[in-house]
Amino acid sequence: CLKVIPAAGIPDSVYEVSPVLSNPNANEDAQKLFQYLCECYGKYTLAGQHCEYGTIGMECHTINKVTGKYPAVLGLDLMSYSPARREHGGSGGNSVEQAIKFHEQGGIVTFCWHWNAPNQYLKDGTDNGNPRWWGGFYTRNTDFDISAVMNGRDPEGKALLDRDIKAIAEQLLRLQDAGIPVLWRPFHEFDGGWFWWGKGGSENFKKLWRIMYDRYVNHWGLNNL
Question: In whole angstroms, how far apart are CA 53 and each of 70, 142, 173, 195?
Fold first, then answer.
């Protein structure tokens, strides 16, 4: 037989979170946003939508057409600012401009980053009919070995990672200068092996995360994340 048994209730302590960010120098914009999220936690769910072109994109346009409102949270991607894509003639996109516009309308902005591996590590040929660089963040399209970089066997790869981190820091600094806090979620889906940052195991991923955090917070002074 199949028995259905009620699960134990979620204890109230789960929702007792402290509004303290990991960065002690987090600016007022970031602190206010985090305070708001903590106040909402366990009580409300904020509607969000990832949309490349912001409020004028198809997804947000459709939501507004049906409901008369826009989502509270707009998801955007810094992919087009990756040096590897720019080297192939990519325009860089306008995600930062879309974020500024959405913030001015009262919305919350979250950014991911489909981080193209450096071009020196791309495989030859195509992937599903597209050039490999188009999906340069996928493990299948690159020979980039995060383990070798994190363990010091590939200093060139480490230098290129620092270069890419700097390129994205320049965009995040634009948002900081505009007074915009960012829900920052790099290295998404890291527990799978389909992106290069997730294929080297947990210890190498943690090393990569700490490098990213140190460069953005301590070196570049990004206090809006």
Answer: 13, 28, 20, 24
